């Protein structure tokens, strides 16, 4: 028992550090999950239908997605230099990211209240203006992964296996780069589907189309690079020799980017994932 | 069905009653009573209220800017239900505050029972009754130096 506590590299990271390393992201994540209560209650009493499902489906999905994003950033924050985390500049940046995420969620629920589209809504100038503003907020909130990826990359004292450190930094940086490309394109398209006919056949839970191209697949994989690559890094670190694991992580990052490119092109051609 | 405001109404009133029962019996278990009447039940009612507003506000008639508009608002069954749930949640929350404050200031529970009944039936009138009762205790304490 005591050996595990005293060990410099414990088997499982201390989750209590979420609250001290990234208090704003951690609190935000908990709040987004608790705010699901009224959203699910609204879904239970709402008989309206928007594009084939409850208007509350979309805010619910975004609350889950952004809560996972925020808690992931809060977890990786421990590998940044402590001085960076404590800096005024970093605290202001995280505060602006938290604000951007809250603004996105507020807008999604406001659109659901009106039973109208939160995305791709250009019917009235006011909605177009909000849609553009939300696009700017989306870039801001995604840039948190870039800033953290660079900070971890440049931190010589993460205490991590080099392959794991590289995979975390690359995962965060790729999350930003790939998401900005795929979600940026998605935001300028007419909708997330490419092609016809759309009769409503979708994959369970994820909701991706099984009939036409769905640009959300590439967005999903892009944004989950911050989970996928560290898993690869953990596996690579099990390999013994010094250079092999690093090469494997670099190759994995390249392969991941190619995979995202492949599903992106597939959707652009109007083909479903499966 | 939960989407029917008439049936939802049937669920909210017993819930609030449970909270008031907890307050009346609170000397038996003060902390449990506060947990029920100041946290759990007001939170549940607030979830119901928020959901009703989220779903029905966009199509509601009227508004807050004139009495005629407020009356128009209450002609819409789900919005009227939201208004009712608002009373239930806030009255109970105030009732819990009265109970908590009386206990902290050693005001007898028997004396605040009428205040709780008034708050339950006529919200602000019950709050006013308690504030007057409490002012009497405070005045006596100030003038005589004898607490409660």
Quote the distance from N terminus to C terminus of chain B: 50 Å
Average pLDDT rating of chain B: 93
Quaternary arrangement of the chains shown? heterodimer
Strands of chain B, total number: 0
Explain this structure.
The complex is a heterodimer of chains A (274) and B (148). Chain A is built from twelve helices and two strands. Chain A folds into two domains: 141 residues, no CATH class; 114 residues, no CATH class. Helix content of chain A is 68%, strand content 1%. Chain A has 274 residues and is mainly alpha-helical. Chain B has a domain of 101 residues. In chain B, helix 1 packs antiparallel against helix 2, helix 1 packs parallel to helix 4 and helix 4 packs parallel to helix 6. Classes of the chains: A mainly alpha (274), B mainly alpha (148). The interface between A and B is medium-sized, with 16 and 12 residues.
Chain-wise SSE layout:
The complex is a heterodimer of chains A (about 270) and B (about 150).
Chain A: H1 2-6, H2 17-21, H3 23-34, H4 36-45, H5 57-76, H6 82-86, H7 88-113, H8 125-153, H9 162-188, E1 193-194, E2 213-214, H10 216-223, H11 225-237, H12 244-268
Antiparallel strand pairs in A: 1-2
Helix pairs in contact in A: 3-5, 4-5, 5-7, 7-8, 8-9, 9-10, 9-11, 9-12, 10-12, 11-12
Chain B: H1 5-24, H2 30-56, H3 67-73, H4 77-104, H5 109-122, H6 124-144
